[in-house]
Amino acid sequence: MRRALIAAFCALLLAPLGARAGNGAQDYSPAERLLFMTAQLKDVQPPAQLRYAFKKSGSLEEGFTDGVTVALSARADGGCCDAKGAFLSAARQQQTPDVPGARGNPVILYFLEHDVREMKRLTGGAENHFRQRIRMAVYQGAQVRDATFQYRGRAVQGQEVTFSPYLDDPNRPKYEKFVRKNYCFMLSRAVPGGVYGIRTEIPGDGKTDAQALVVEELFLEGAQLPFPGSTIAPDTRSSS
Fold first, then answer.
1. CA torsion, points 55, 64, 166, 40, in degrees to nearest 10?
2. What is the pLDDT of residue 207?
3. Mean pLDDT by 10-residue block, N- to C-terminus, for the chain (240 residues)?
4. At how many degrees (to 10) do helices 2-14 and 107-123 cross?
5. Over the chain, what HEC string results?
6. Residues near 48 by Cβ (< 8 Å), separated by ≥ 6?
7. What CA–CA distance (Å, rounded) separates 138 from 215?
8. What is the structure's pLDDT at 3?
9. Which residues 6+ apart lie within 8 Å of 109 measured at CB?
10. In the prediction, which pLDDT does 77 show?
11. What CA–CA distances, in Å, run from 205 to 87, 98, 210, 211?
12. Cβ–Cβ contacts within 10 Å for residue 91, how many?
């Protein structure tokens, strides 16, 4: 069931949405192309394993630290890659589908599927509603900017994709406490798997709760975190 949901999410993310260009091709946004249409695994030499540190913090509920892995093996033709994910562990583990012939890094879809499940749990809303809001935000409202990250003691160039899907949601009154949630995807071709990190934050109201309500962060091991408030310790072990 969960495999089918992630497959449906992937189809939703890549479904035609915007206007078509003059030649009849779909007009995807720069954010869509970076997140969902880039061959992030192109330069990976299988077999390899991408490892990510995951941390949840904030004032709303108890936080935790855990890990996420994406194991990559060669396709039948020797190219990269067939992917097998493990998202969190023990009671928190989210079932993830194998992705044969993956081009993009499936950790993005795994994280987003986890995210919409959490939004459903926190608000009582429908998962598909949150998927649609994310899809629309990536197409219409996402900002893309160049960025520099620190990876294993060296500066690497990349892009940040940021968006806030719920500010203009017609259903906003049903979950007002969470509508300022923001998303930041950090991408770089200079790191294994192309995904440096992902961070979401639900800010506090600044009055009764100055601390963020919920922060979830996923960073490639070896990353040096760019956020002053983050407490995930960079890992110096190999990611391949």
1. 30
2. 65
3. 46 47 66 94 91 96 96 88 95 92 95 96 95 94 94 94 96 94 97 96 79 95 65 40
4. 110
5. CHHHHHHHHHHHHHCCCCCECCCCCECCCHHHHHHHCCCCCCCCCCCEEEEEEEEEECCCCCCEEEEEEEEEEECCCCCEEEEEEEECCHHHCECCCCECCCCCCCHHHHHHHHHHHHHHHHHCCCHHHHHHHHHHHHHHCCEEEEEEEEECCEEEEEEEEEECCCCCCCCHHHHHHHCCCEEEEEECCCCCCCEEEEEEEECCCCCCCCCCCEEEEEEECCEECCCCCCCCCCCCCCCC
6. 71, 72, 81, 192, 239, 240
7. 20
8. 44
9. 6, 9, 10, 13
10. 84
11. 30, 40, 6, 8
12. 5
pLDDT of residue 106: 96
Neighbour-count burial for 37-58, b at 16+ CB within 10 Å, e otherwise: ebebbeebebebbbbbbbbbbb
Tell me the C-alpha distance between 163 and 159, whole Å.
13
Distances (CA, A) of 146 to 77, 184, 188: 35, 13, 10
Distances (CA, A) of 32 to 114, 205, 215: 19, 30, 23
CB atoms within 10 A of CB 154: 9
pLDDT at 27: 78
Distance, in Å, from the CA atom of 228 to the CA atom of 240, rounded to the nearest integer, reads: 27
Residue 219: both structure tokens together: 């960073």
pLDDT at 239: 40
Residue 87 and residue 110 in contact, taking contact as beta carbons nearer than 8 Å: yes
User: In this structure, are residues 97 and 113 in contact, taking their beta carbons and an 8 Å threshold?
Assistant: no
